[in-house]
């Protein structure tokens, strides 16, 4: 520990007045700024009506959406009018995905049917008029009288919070993973299970539900499922054309987004390069031209990519071409500005040195200035490549096609959250990949110097 | 020295020349290959994009000016009424800018804290560094639009959705830049503080923060401009502000209104851009820092 004598301390305080004990006004700046910012945030908190919005927020919907993004839902439905047909078992309740052979969670002996809700117990229907629900936490099973053209009746007395009985319908949700819903005309049981169903092959595909081992032996086997193609290409095409997950379409859309970003960035760089030279004060002596170009850059940049894409969509129609042009326009402005600043900051001496050897003006810039700023150009273009991948997704969602549009489609239906989650994962993966690749290329091409 | 020796010893000269020519040839090949790759990706990309587009490029070229012409014609007809339109949409512009400022402030707060945990020179626990970095990667890569859309479904149309979405992305974007600037900071101050017994928080507060704060502010100002654009875009999916109004008038094709809103947006973005680059110049004394 260093100790300072009283005399030494007095000397230090005298020598560095205002360092050890700062003046009051200076000391108040930082807390003052913090208080001002907090005040501003509080004002905004009420101006944006945050409490009201949070009050009205549909957290139950959020929970369901979240659940649907990683789990799939099976329906078991019995309609009393067609009671003799028994329970109809399907994935997500669609007619396209009906189970022909009952899954393991469903048992029926003709009259009585049992649905196993895993951790939430067992629902049984006697085929006549009584539904019995056995919950693991309750000794007494819950019994309901149903059918006969009447509203369902709860026969027990214990009513847990999750059991809704409106007199006209019974709606029981013992946990997020299951729901028993009985009305005058039907019994419907929903059953969630974790995991993405049919991710590899469609529900109606002959390959649905096969294990990797089965697939391998199938690929090796010479008995063809489809006479026209080998089993291996059949497996590949079944995966690629999976109707529920649309892997092929989604990867094509991803490619379109990538094209928008790559082509947009490259072309913008090529357009901006000569313009940047013309807008640099140390290259172009004409003040008027420089001023004009600078304002054009500002305009191109200020009109956001989104607004450009709106204009191009009107002209060229919906699709990635319009998105590409939108990126080209915005980024020509950005690159024009950045490049011209870089040219102005370039070291004059190299250009002078080249000039001294009798070089023509073009040679002077080619050999004296260009090599200095090239690394900066490349670095900035690579940097924008990554951010353009993200903007291409965004403008894609608003009409320019590609993966953004696919994403929006899945979100609009509000049912296919598993597809939404899949696309989000792919987009994040693509952006991170572009980020790493551009960083790697930057280091490879121009060494460790950043920007 | 080596160079002088090489010049004195003439047999080496031929060898050097040969080496030089080999390197030059290699460079030309690489340049040529790079140009080839760029050309192929541009033309191939255009071809694919053209195929996937609903309208064609050449068909659209002739009608390219139609839409801007419509907008300008609508604006011209309105005449002086444009000023009253500007007054009508001004509060929405203020809302958009407020969304951007609030999200930049909140994002700045969280990312500046996280950045210390994501810097290898400041955080000795490499597991923490890795986890925080991956978290920042994901928040940065997550498209704002997706978060805003989800939140609009949950909250209903509200600026809160835009604020949360933009904040989330800002944390990732600023966090990365901040941690890079932390890693470039001079560690001598930290060592000095450690030698007099300062704890980790004190080392960061008095050793690193004063060095990096101007950089932090500079990056945050740059972010502010990007966030104004982002919050305007998010209005398109119902997250409030000028974007929501723009979407409405675009759908209804009100030329004058579109003109006024775009003009206001461009002016606001350009003004913030100039303001932020002026302040940044004062702060770090250099332009072009990305």
Automatic annotation (TrEMBL), chain A:
Domain ABC transmembrane type-1: 254-438
Location in the cell: Cell membrane
One of the record's GO cellular component terms: plasma membrane
InterPro entries from the UniProt entry: MetI-like (IPR000515), MetI-like_sf (IPR035906), PhnE/PtxC (IPR005769)
GO molecular function: ABC-type phosphonate transporter activity
Protein keywords: Membrane, Transmembrane, Transmembrane helix, Transport
SUPFAM superfamilies (UniProt xref): MetI-like
Family per record: Belongs to the binding-protein-dependent transport system permease family.
Protein name: Phosphonate ABC transporter, permease protein PhnE
Species, as recorded: Pseudovibrio exalbescens
UniProtKB/TrEMBL annotation, chain B:
Keyword terms of this UniProt record: Cell membrane, Membrane, Transmembrane, Transmembrane helix, Transport
Membrane topology recorded in Swiss-Prot or TrEMBL: Multi-pass membrane protein
Subcellular location: Cell membrane
Cellular component terms per the entry's GO annotation: plasma membrane
SUPFAM superfamilies associated with the record: MetI-like
Pfam families, alphabetized: BPD_transp_1
Coiled coil, from the record: none
Transmembrane stretches, start-end: 30-49, 97-117, 256-275
Predominant location category: membrane
Residue intervals of the ABC transmembrane type-1 domain: 93-273
InterPro entries: MetI-like (IPR000515), MetI-like_sf (IPR035906), PhnE/PtxC (IPR005769)
Gene Ontology molecular function: ABC-type phosphonate transporter activity
PROSITE patterns: ABC_TM1
Family: Belongs to the binding-protein-dependent transport system permease family.
Name by which UniProt lists this protein: Phosphonate ABC transporter permease
Source species of the chain: Pseudovibrio exalbescens
């Amino acid at each position: 520990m260093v100790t300072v004598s009283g005399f030494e301390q007095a000397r230090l305080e005298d020598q560095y007045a205002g360092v050890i004990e700062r003046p009051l006004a200076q000391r108040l700046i930082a807390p003052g700024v913090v208080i001002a910012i907090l005040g501003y945030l509080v004002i905004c908190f009420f101006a944006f009506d945050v409490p009201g919005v949070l009050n009205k927020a549909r957290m139950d919907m959020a929970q369901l959406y979240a659940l649907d993004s990683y789990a799939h839902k099976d329906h078991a439905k019995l309609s009393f009018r067609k009671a003799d047909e028994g329970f109809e078992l399907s994935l997500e309740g669609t007619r396209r995905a009906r189970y022909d052979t009952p899954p393991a969670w469903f048992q029926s002996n003709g009259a009585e049917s049992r649905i196993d809700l895993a951790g939430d117990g067992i629902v049984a229907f006697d085929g006549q008029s009584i539904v019995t629900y056995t919950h693991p936490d309750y000794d007494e099973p819950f019994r309901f009288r149903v059918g006969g053209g009447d509203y369902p009746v709860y026969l027990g007395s214990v009513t847990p919070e999750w059991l809704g009985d409106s007199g006209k319908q019974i709606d029981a949700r013992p946990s997020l993973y299951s729901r028993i819903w009985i009305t005058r005309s039907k019994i419907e049981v929903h059953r969630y299970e974790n995991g993405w169903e049919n991710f590899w092959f469609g529900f109606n595909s002959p390959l649905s539900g096969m294990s990797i081992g089965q697939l391998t032996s199938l690929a090796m086997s010479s008995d063809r499922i489809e006479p026209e193609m080998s089993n291996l290409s059949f497996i590949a095409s079944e995966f690629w054309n999976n109707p529920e997950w649309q892997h092929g379409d989604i990867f094509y859309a991803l490619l379109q987004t990538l094209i928008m970003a790559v082509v947009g960035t490259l072309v913008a760089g090529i357009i901006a390069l000569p313009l940047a030279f013309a807008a640099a004060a140390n290259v172009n002596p004409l003040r008027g031209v420089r001023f004009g170009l600078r304002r054009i850059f500002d305009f191109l940049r200020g009109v956001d990519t989104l607004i450009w894409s709106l204009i191009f969509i009107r002209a060229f129609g919906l699709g990635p071409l319009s998105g590409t042009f939108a990126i080209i326009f915005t980024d020509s402005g950005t690159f024009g500005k950045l490049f011209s600043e870089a040219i102005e900051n370039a070291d004059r001496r190299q250009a002078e040195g080249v000039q001294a050897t009798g070089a023509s003006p073009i040679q002077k810039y080619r050999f004296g200035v260009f090599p200095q700023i090239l690394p900066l150009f490349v670095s900035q273009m690579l940097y924008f490549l990554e951010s353009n991948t993200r903007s291409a997704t965004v403008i894609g969602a608003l009409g320019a096609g590609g993966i953004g549009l696919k994403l929006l489609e899945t979100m609009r239906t509000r049912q296919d959250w598993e597809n939404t989650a899949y696309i989000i994962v792919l987009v994040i993966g693509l952006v991170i990949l572009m980020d790493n690749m551009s960083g790697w290329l930057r280091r490879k091409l121009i060494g460790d110097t950043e920007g | 020295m080596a160079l002088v020796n090489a010049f004195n010893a003439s047999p080496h000269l031929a060898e050097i020349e040969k080496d030089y020519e080999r390197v030059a040839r290699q460079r030309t090949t690489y340049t040529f290959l790079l140009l080839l790759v760029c050309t192929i990706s541009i033309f191939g990309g255009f071809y694919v994009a053209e195929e996937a587009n609903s309208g064609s490029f050449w068909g659209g070229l002739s009608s390219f000016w139609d839409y801007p012409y419509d907008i300008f014609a609508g604006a011209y007809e309105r005449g002086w009424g444009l000023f009253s339109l500007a007054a009508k949409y001004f509060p929405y512009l203020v809302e958009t800018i407020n969304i951007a400022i609030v999200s930049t402030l909140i994002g700045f707060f969280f990312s500046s804290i996280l950045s210390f945990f994501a810097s290898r020179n400041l955080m000795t626990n490499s597991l923490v560094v890795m986890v925080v970095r991956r978290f920042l990667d994901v928040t940065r890569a997550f498209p704002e639009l997706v978060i805003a859309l989800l939140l609009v479904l949950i909250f209903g149309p509200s600026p809160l959705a835009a604020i949360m979405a933009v904040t989330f992305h800002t944390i990732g974007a600023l966090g990365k830049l901040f941690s890079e600037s932390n890693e470039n900071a001079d560690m001598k101050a930290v060592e000095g503080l450690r030698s007099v017994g300062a704890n980790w928080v004190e080392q960061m507060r008095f050793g690193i923060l004063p060095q990096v704060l101007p950089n932090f502010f500079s990056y945050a100002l740059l972010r502010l401009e990007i966030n104004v654009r982002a919050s305007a875009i998010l209005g398109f999916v119902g997250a409030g502000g000028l974007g929501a109004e723009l979407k409405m008038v675009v759908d209804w094709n009100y030329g004058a209104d579109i003109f006024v809103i775009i003009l206001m947006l461009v002016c606001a973005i350009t003004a913030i851009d100039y303001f932020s680059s002026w302040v940044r110049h004062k702060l770090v004394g250099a332009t072009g820092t990305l």
